[in-house]
Specification:
This protein is of the alpha/beta class. 31% of the residues lie in helices and 18% in strands. It folds into 3 domains: 5-177, Dimethylsulfoxide Reductase, domain 2 (3-Layer(aba) Sandwich); 179-220 and 291-373, Rossmann fold, CATH 3.40.50; 415-526, Barwin-like endoglucanases (Beta Barrel). The strands form 7 sheets. Strands 17-19-18-23-16-20 form a 6-stranded mixed β-sheet. Strands 3-2-1-5-6 form a 5-stranded parallel β-sheet, sandwiched between helices. β10, α15 and β11 form a beta-alpha-beta unit. The two termini are 44 Å apart. The model has no long low-confidence stretch (mean pLDDT 95).
Length: 527
């Protein structure tokens, strides 16, 4: 997030896009609802479903899945037409505004309605509300990113924020709500194939030499590795022989699961390190038991970039080491000396080689934590990014063209499927589906449908339906819901026995390499 969570309630208007916040980020949704109820702030909620947060919205829009660039460009065009752009901010702090004006010019409200299904007058209402506020906060989640144009979607939202001068101010920002705990910290620590900690590129010679010196080695590769989705293809063609998975369950969570399973079966060696025997662990040659968050020491970094201490609360199973101890022991058995006395020593090494974290240590993290960048020991941390100027100098507007989703409905597969979570379960259900209380709330997979779509298929509420895509089929119980627009159905992806990702499309965003989980074409028939 460019801004802290506390800024949500300081914004004059909040725009939430592609996030079922009340079910997937309930703490943050509480801040949004407080802002509306007690602060009388404006709220724009944009999501294909009539999610619960729309009940609190000043304006609620329901675009066809996969059409986000169209409505964002349309809002920007309206802002230009009405002369509501932050002209002084744009002139002083940005570049590329003329190219953006040209790119959004075709996106009239009528054209956007044709592409997205959003009524023209509702789009205008949303644009005027956002642009008319002194400060506007944009919150988004995987409904924006999990598309073949996910990177472009985020750039388009950044365009919208900069047009209105909402970056680098209190109550503003472009703020991603991270999908899993500490995913921000994992990325910060170099858990990506092309960076070291602090997002320093592996191909940069100075960065590589810094790491070689810190680790007392030579010859570190300057070549980026594979993304998780690329690994599946590499396993299938035989160029990837072995895979080591820590705390992930891709045999439920990856798009186009049949393709993923074929790739995994072609591996020569699979290791899984996890706290439970997941579906992926069951396919492994070696399973390494691990400790959960409450059984070990370390740090997490939350969605607002706040680095926080995690302290051991309970003892784990006897004889099970922490993740870092497992890693060090494997390294030693591969004749590479990797030895640390404690998690704190590892953190000290991280801060020594990562300029954005250089001012942090365990003593400074005793309280509520500190948001990075924190470059020195006397620096308080940075709750808001881009204050006064952008990190790169001037903020650049990126003209973004609209292209349809990789797969759209046709006569054979006439409905759009989108996927997501429910309040009572988390991700692939590795932990939550072991709770009787949570299973009593939601015990099985369901397909949420519009009543008209269900009647056309002769389906009643509670019937079992079979869903087909070009990649597979599953059975799910029909849930006829007023939350769905006609032509769109929804599946939660928590249930391995009826895995939504049997159906989803593995086409990737060319930049982020994330699959298009949120849009694919399906047909639904009575089971």
């Amino acid at each position: 997030m460019t801004n802290p969570i506390s800024d949500i309630e300081k914004a004059d208007v909040i725009l939430v896009a592609g996030s079922n916040t009340t079910e997937t980020h309930p703490v943050i949704s509480s801040a949004i609802k407080r802002a509306v109820k007690f602060g009388k702030k404006g709220l724009i909620v944009i999501d294909p479903r009539k999610i619960a947060l729309k009940k609190h919205a000043t304006v609620g829009l329901s675009p066809v899945p996969g059409t986000d660039i169209a409505w964002i460009n349309g809002m920007i065009r309206i802002i230009f037409e009405e002369g509501l752009e932050a002209s002084e901010y744009i002139a002083e702090r940005t570049e590329g505004i003329d190219a953006l004006r040209e790119a959004v010019a075709p996106f009239t409200p009528a054209y956007v309605e044709e592409l997205t299904g959003i009524p023209a007058e509702r789009l205008i209402q949303a644009a005027l509300l956002y642009a008319g506020a002194e400060s506007g906060s944009i919150l988004y989640c995987m409904g924006i990113t999990q598309h073949t144009k996910g990177t472009d979607n985020v750039k388009a939202l950044a365009n919208l924020a900069m047009v209105c001068g909402n970056l680098g101010i209190e109550g503003g920002g472009v703020n991603p709500l991270r999908g899993q705990n500490n995913v921000q910290g994992a990325c910060d620590m170099g858990g990506l194939p092309d960076v070291y900690p602090g997002y320093r590129k592996v191909h940069d010679e100075a960065h590589a030499q810094t790491m070689e010196k810190a680790w007392n080695v030579s010859g570190l590769s300057r070549k980026p590795g594979l993304t998780a989705t690329d690994m599946v293809g590499a396993a299938l063609d035989g160029s990837l022989k072995a895979l080591y998975i820590i705390g992930e369950n891709p045999l439920v969570s990856e798009a186009d699961l049949t393709h993923t399973e074929k790739g995994f079966k072609n591996l020569e060696f699979l290791v899984v390190q996890d706290i439970f025997m997941t579906e992926t662990a069951q396919a492994a040659d070696v399973v390494l038991p691990a400790l959960c968050f409450a059984e070990k020491e370390g740090t997490f970094t939350n969605t607002e970039r706040r680095v926080q201490r995690v302290r051991k609360a309970v003892d784990g199973p006897k004889g099970v080491p922490s993740d870092w101890e497992i890693t060090c022991e494997i390294a030693r058995r591969m004749d590479s000396e990797m030895s640390y006395p404690s998690p704190e020593a590892i953190f000290d090494e991280i801060t020594a080689v990562t300029p954005t974290l250089a001012g942090l240590n365990y003593d400074r993290l005793k309280g509520d934590g500190i948001p990075w960048p924190c470059p020195s020991k006397d620096h308080p941390g940075t709750p808001r990014l881009h204050v006064g100027s952008f990190a790169k100098g001037k903020g650049t507007f990126f003209p973004i063209a609209f292209t349809p989703a990789a797969e759209t409905p046709d006569d054979d597969y006439p409905l759009i499927l989108t996927t997501g979570r429910v309040l009572y379960h988390y991700h692939t259900g590795t932990m939550t589906r072991k709770s009787d209380g949570l299973n009593q709330q939601v015990s099985e997979c369901f397909v949420e449908m519009n009543r008209e779509d269900a009647l056309e298929k002769n389906l009643a509420d509670g019937d079992m339906a079979t869903l087909f895509s070009r990649r597979g089929k599953i059975n799910a119980k029909v849930n006829i819901s007023g939350r769905m627009e006609k032509g769109t159905v929804f599946l939660p992806f928590h249930f391995a026995e009826a895995a939504a990702n049997r159906l989803t499309n593995a086409k990737l965003d060319p930049i982020s390499k994330i699959p298009e989980f949120k849009v694919c074409a399906v047909k639904v028939v009575k089971a």
